[in-house]
Amino acid sequence: MQFIYYPRCSTCLKALKKLKEQGLDVELRDIVQQTPSQEELLHWIQQNGQGIKPFFNTSGKLYREMNLKEKVKDMSEQEAALLLSQNGMLIKRPILVDDQNIYIGYQKEIYEK
């Protein structure tokens, strides 16, 4: 199981704490130092089945500075995955990936299972 997070994000740290409390062994991956590749993101977008919007950190400073709210609507999955792969701070976090599932953002009910 892979846990992709930003080490200075309090929500990510809260999610990581929940995983550790349950004794789960996760591979940690810093979203800035090891930004997911375009190929990984495309795979996750298709695996998730909810389009590209859930992958964008819409509350992030960079998202707002780049005025992506309007631009994302017209992006293809390829374009979105390329943009996200170029800057990890644009990606919603944390991301929890196992063999069959991907969970984007902190969802309390998921992390307490």
TrEMBL record:
CDD domains: ArsC_like (cd03036). InterPro entries: Arsenate_reductase-like (IPR006660), Thioredoxin-like_sf (IPR036249), Tscrpt_reg_Spx/MgsR (IPR006504). Belongs to the ArsC family. PANTHER family: ARSENATE REDUCTASE, PROTEIN YFFB. This is Glutaredoxin.
